[in-house]
């Protein structure tokens, strides 16, 4: 027959379990019995046990928070900086990227431009920095330019453009991927300008593009709109040019028969040189109406 002390301890343990259920602490409840046994065996004291139980619960909650935030940010593919092969892109300053991971550019509402040929790691770096922001508790929205403009166009048709832009401005960090990969639909440049103008000096952005700034008039189908965009996007900006081969193609180069393997398939053409001066205020005023 159990002693009175044992019965009292069991009753107390049941009470703790009920409290953990009421507090919605599933991980703490899960590890409680094992932790109590470790106390009884003299492996840890009560304070250490309490610390371990709370750490387990906090770790679970943080994992759930990050998972939910990644879904809200539309970061369905998670990339990390530790998974990026800096040795493959010697033109890239590793320390500069790690400095961006400290996220102070978000506090300064700066725009980070990642430019370079396809396959050089722009999207990987943009995603990894977005993941770092999510882990740090910053709100993030990630989208390709094509999807972003499509959502703005739909909102305009539905009469909810102002609300959509307001929603996109609430995020501490907006990542716009693949600028220049697909043609921008007519009117899309103006919609993107409205969003950029609303976030100007109010929220940070990361943009990736395979096209030089001098080509943005062609990308957006309107040199004046492109100039107005660049006027804002280059004012408080960090520009990182990646010059190198495509990681994806280099990784699978051995699958291409030797007699058809071409350097052109592996090594991209040199990045276009910038032409002209930075956009002036006169053209911006003209674009803004």
Task: Describe the overall structure.
This protein is of the alpha/beta class and about 290 residues long. The chain has 14 helices and 5 strands. It has helices spanning about 5-20, 25-40, 45-70, 95-100, 105, 120-135, 145-160, 160-170, 190-200, 215-220, 225-235, 245-250, 265, 280-289, and strands at about 110-115, 140-145, 175-180, 205-210, 235-240. The chain has a 5-stranded parallel beta sheet. Strand 3 (about 175-180), helix 9 and strand 4 form a beta-alpha-beta unit. Helix 7 (about 145-160) packs across helix 8 (about 160-170). The longest helix is centred in the N-terminal third of the chain and has 27 residues, at about 45-70. It is elongated. It starts with a helix and ends with a helix. About 25% of the residues are buried. The model is unreliable at about 260-289 (pLDDT under 50). Keywords: ATP-binding, Nucleotide-binding. InterPro entries: AAA+_ATPase, DNAC/IstB-like, IstB, IstB_ATP-bd, P-loop_NTPase.
Which short descriptors sum up this protein?
alpha/beta; 289 residues; 54% helix; 10% strand; elongated
Helix tally? 14
Strand content: 5-15%
The spatial strand order of the largest sheet comes to 2-3-4-1-5
C-alpha geometry: elongated
Mean pLDDT: 85
- CA distance, first residue to last residue: 89 Å
Number of strands: 5
Which spans have pLDDT < 50 for at least 5 consecutive residues?
259-289
SSE sequence, one letter per element: HHHHHEHEHHEHEHHEHHH
Helix content: 40-55%
Q: Report the C-alpha radius of gyration, rounded.
A: 26 Å
Major sheet: 5 strands, parallel
Give me the secondary-structure category: alpha/beta
